[in-house]
Amino acid sequence: MAGGTRSPGVSVTSRVLAILGAFDVAHPALALSDIARRSGLPLATTHRLVAELVAGRALSRAADGTYTIGVRLWEAGLLSPLHTRLREAAQPYLQELYTHLRENVHLAVRDGDEALYVEKVTGHRSVPTISRAGGRLPLHATGVGKALLAFAPPEVVAAHLRRPLRRCTAYTITEPGRLARELAGIRERGWARTHEEMTLGSCSVAVPVHGADGTTLAAIGVVGHSLGAAPQRLVPALRAAAEQVAARLAEAQEAMPPYAPMRQRASA
Prior knowledge:
single chain, alpha+beta, 8 strands, six-stranded antiparallel sheet
């Protein structure tokens, strides 16, 4: 649960962050009681801080009494390097991939033991997926997640393999030894795949986006109903897009400080 704490001595900043953390892709609009419950704060404290956040336009109150993220936070979010550097650098190449393949195209980064989806390009003919920009899905059950995890530092991989692995479908790999072998194979061939491991009926292929120093900045993936008996046929197009994104990020260093991936928490 996001946030917070009912213990005394918790700073106002921590309480405000707990309130903001109560909102996510699955809960974009919340009643006051829901914010209190999800943040772990007393209702009276939540009421006072939410009122201040509404006054400051960090939250917005709808006619039905629910609250959503406000325009001030939206404006601040647009200043994040994930938007101003990574997303903007990748957008043209993601669009080209979609135009060529007519399947869902994803851009994601690793945040702890989850894949954080930075962008998604889709169309009315694409297979419906549960992913969306700003959403999070498990690393071990998604194509982009496997690509990110396989090329993460060894200590991150080892820590992830020690964690309980959630079974999303009957095909999700949840055995640590089997997942370790899968990740080793991804590192060897340079691309990842899934077959109905996150959602029944959906398959994916993904590749990492590497920086000049070898750091894994992000992953680009394609998701569809069936990617055929030879999913590797999609890899050249994905690799080309990944290389173009990496090159565009490198070129931008001349105009501003280098893009650095978000602080990627190691799995505990």
